[in-house]
Automatic annotation (TrEMBL):
Coiled coil: none annotated. Keywords: Oxidoreductase. Gene3D superfamilies: NAD(P)-binding Rossmann-like Domain (3.40.50.720). It comes from the Bacteria. Residues 32-208 form the Ketoreductase domain. Belongs to the short-chain dehydrogenases/reductases (SDR) family. One of its GO terms (molecular function) is oxidoreductase activity. This is Short-chain dehydrogenase. Signal peptide: none annotated. It comes from Meridianimarinicoccus roseus.
Amino acid sequence: MRGHAGPQSRRWRETGVCGTRREGHLDEASRKTVLITGASRGIGAATARAFAAQGARVALVARSREALSELAGELGEAALAIPCDVSRYWEVAAAVDATVKTFGRLDVLVNNAGVIAPIAPFGQTDPEAWAKTQEINVTGVYHGMRAAWEVMIGQAGGGTILTVSSGAASRPLEGWSAYCASKAAAAMLTRSADLEGRALGIRAIGLSPGTVDTDMQGDIRDSGIGAISQMARSEHIPPDWPARALVWLAGPGGDEHLGQEVSLRDPAIRAAAGLGA
């Protein structure tokens, strides 16, 4: 759903509804305010549930008003739904403003919104679709970082910027020129944010989750291009794995990974995040 974020935001306060929250037994995510882009489904929705289950307040950002409303209703009073197009800076800035106005601060930004199309041989890609991928996957990440920057450096405790990355950031894949280029650029944004923001109290980290069983994998399968399109659904990890890893990175576990791309394919990272082998 497109349009200015501020007037469209809505807070849910359904008593007793907030995942598995238990007062007195909350971990490092407790009472943090987390803004998640691409929150309406897949990794984004799973991440919202994971943070809310630990007592965090979550601002849900995506274009789909209906899907956001459903998720916010599920999460209850800790959720703020903000329809927003991340490729438009003024909408992202309004979403950050609405989050701070509602919850008082912004502790964690999760840059998750992204698209993979067009998947096509280089010479058959549509230039407009290719450029749109960069607007969402690169400029959208920058918009989130830029809008959150002054808020985070101006508050006690600073803030954390987590960006969902990909192995495609470091190697080309057949038919994925748009996606690979965008993820490489987003990875450099993480490094740039760390270089300039660490001394100011900003922690910037990228998470490369590997292949995840989301709607995006359906698009990849439908393309029939490359080895990943031939993988069975059972070979992909569930969305709650990267979600739980993001919660872990938002806490002290992320301190040794600042400015890096953390790979969820690494058994040591999975173990540290409390995930399976």
